[in-house]
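Bug: C-alpha cell stream looks shifted between consecutive jobs. Job 1:
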Amino acid sequence: MKVKKSLKIVGLVIVAVIFLGTFMFLYSKSKPKVTVYEVIKPEITNLEKTTVVTGKIEPRDEILIKPQISGIIDKLYKEAGQAIKKDEIIARVKVIPEMGQLNAAESSLRVAEINAKQEETNFARTEKLFKDGLISKEEYEKGNVSYKQAIEERNKAQDALDIIREGITKKSASYSNTLIRSTIDGLILDIPIKEGNSVILSNTFNDGTTIATVANMNDLIFRGNIDETEVGRIIEGMPMKLTIGALQNFSFDARLEYIAPKGVEENGAINFEIKAAISVPDTVVIRAGYSANAEIVLQRATNVLALPESTIQFSGDSTFVWVMTDSIPEQKFERREITAGMSDGIRMEIKKGLASDDKVRGAEKMNK
C-alpha cells in the first residue's frame, strides 16, 4: 500500500510540473514584445551628390607624322618613348622611282642639254660679232638672254630628274622630303613602321602611311562618356577629381571643358562625350591611354542638418520621421513631418521639422 501511495504522489508531482511548465510557456508567449530601436541624432555636415564617369587619359593633340613622298624606309633614327624636338629627324625615306616618270625626266634632260649646247654655240658667235662691231648691243643682249634661259631649262630638267631618282636636289638637300621630321616638340608615342617598309604619301584616295605619332604629354585631357540622365546637371567649368587605375595612390584635379552637343547610342543608352583638362604634378608620369574615373560633384550643401536616409520615410507627397518623446519605462515615438533637401545617397538634408537635439528612431535594435 505504501508503495502504491508513493507512486501516486510521484505521478501527481510530475503532472503538476508539466502543468506549471505549460502555463509558464503560454504566459511568456502571450506577453507583449517590447521593440528597442537605435536612436540617432541629426548632425551638421556637408553633403555632396556626385557621379562617376569612366574614361581614359590622352594627349590633347596627337600628331600623325606622314611622308611627303612615297618610297621605302631606309633608316629609323628614333623609337617610341623618346622625347623629340620640332624639326628633329625621325626617319629617312629612300625613293623608288616610277619607270615611266624616270624615262620622261631623262628624256627632258637630254633635250634641255641639246638646247643649252646649241644656245651656247649661238651666243659665242653673237658675242664675237658684237666685239667686232658687226651687230648691235640689243642683238647681243637677246642672245645672252636666250643662252641663260637654255641653261636654266637644263638645270630645271636636272632637278626634276634628281627628285624622281632621289627625292631631293643638290640645291635643296637640307630641305629634303626624304627626311621625315617631327612637326612639334613632344614624346613619340608610336612608330608603327620598320626599316624596309613601304610608305606612301597622302592623296585623294589614301590617308598616307603614318611614320610616327607624336604628342605633347604636358597637355593631357580626360575623355569619357556620361549618361543622358546626368548630362543636364553638369556645365563646362565644373571641377572634377580623377583617379587612375595604374596610379592608385594619386588623385588629380581636372576641370570640365567640353560637353558633346550630340549624344551617341551605345547598348540602348544615350551617352554624351565629355573632356576635361588635367593638372598633373611634375613628379608624376602619366602614360597615354591610362584608364581613369572622374568624380563630378553634381550638387553640394554645406553646414546642413542631415540624417541617414534609412531613418526617413515617405508616404505620397509627405516625408516624415519618428521622433522620440520618452524613453522610460520604454521608448515612445511620434510621427513628425519634415521638409527634406538633397541627398548624397547615404544622408539626406533636413530643411525643416527637426532640431539638432531631436532624437530620431533608427533601425530595430533588439527585442526583450
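Job 2, same session, no restart:
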Amino acid sequence: MTTFKNIEQELLQSHRFLKNLIKSAVDAIIAADMTGKILLFNDAACEICGYKVNEVIEKLNIQAIYPDNDAKRVMHILRSDKYGEKGVLRSFRVDIKKKSGEIIPISLNASIVYDDDKEVATLGFFHDLRETLKIEEELEKTRVQLLQSAKMASVGELAAGVAHQLNNPLGGITLYSQLLMEDYTLPDGAQQDLKRIIRDAQRCTDTVQELLKFSRQTTNEMHLQDINQLLSETLILVKDQTLFHNIEIKKNFQNNLPLVPVDIQQIKHVFMNIILNAADAMEGQGVLSLFTSHEEPLSDRVCITISDTGHGIPDDILIKIFDPFFTTKEQGKGTGLGLSMAYRIVEDHGGKMSAESKTGEGTNFLIELMLPETESEKTFE
C-alpha cells in the first residue's frame, strides 16, 4: 500500500512539474484535438494571442487563432511530407491572429500526436518573430548605410580626381572661345555657335564645382545651433518663390530643442535641397510638412522630418536616390548630385539621412543629427 502511495505521489509530482514546465515555457504551446478544440494553452500563448485561458480551453477552435484558412493549410502540410517528415513541421513561417485582430509573425514547430496509427491531437510550439524581424530590419538598414558610406567615399575620391582633370581644358575652351569672339569679325551663325560653346562649357564648369564640393574633405565650421531657427530661415528663402505659391507649409517644431553642432551653410544646403525637391515632386501644389523632435528612445539626437504629398518614389528608384549622378529630371535640369551631397554633408556631421516613400502617398526624408555628449543638456531658450 505504501509503495502504491509513493508511486501515486511521484506521478502527481511529475504531473505538476510537467504542467509548470509547459506553463512557464518561453514559446507559446497549444494543443488541440482533431476537431480543432483547444486542450492546452500556456501563459506564453495567452500573451501572444491575447486570450485568457478560461476563454480558450475546450471553448475556442484553433482555427480562430489563424487568419483565413491557414489552420487547414498547416494541417494539410503536416499530413504530407512536403517539408520533411510526415506528421512533423519544423521552423515553418506562418501568421497567427490575436484576439484584437492583429497579425503576428510566427515560427511554428508542430506535430501530429498518434495513438497507434490514429490521429488524436496536434501540438504546436509558436515562437514570436516580431522582435527577430525588427532586429533583422535594423541590421539591413545598417548594412545599406554602411554600403552607401563606402560608395560615397569611393565616388568622392574619383570625383575629386575627375574634377581637377577637367578644370584646365574647360577653362581653355571658355577662354579661347571668348578670344575668337573678341578678336575676329565672325558671321552671326559663328557667333551664336561660340556662345553655345561657352554656355555648355559653363554648365560643365558648374558640374565640376559641384563635384569638388561633393568630394571636399575640409573641416566643417561647427557651432551649436538651433535647428528650428535654421529650418525657419531656410523656409524664408523659398516660400515666396513662384513654385511655392500653391504649397501649404506646415511646421511642427518641438520647443526647447537641444542645440546641435553643425556647419550652418552646409546644413541649410541640405534643408534647401530636400525642400526644393519636395516642391518639384508636388509640381507646385500640395502640403510640405516639417517636424523636429528630441525624445526617447532617440534622446541622443535631434530628428528632422521633411514630408511632401507628391507622387511618391517607386521602390526601384528609392534605393538609388542618394547615388551620385542619379536623377529623374530632364537632361540639363539636374546634375544628380544634390541628394548625394546632402547625404554626404549629414554623414560628415556624424548623422544619418534616410527616405521613405510610397507611390501616390508622398515622401518622408528623415535627418538625424547627433548631440555632443558634453552639450546634450543645453537647450535653446
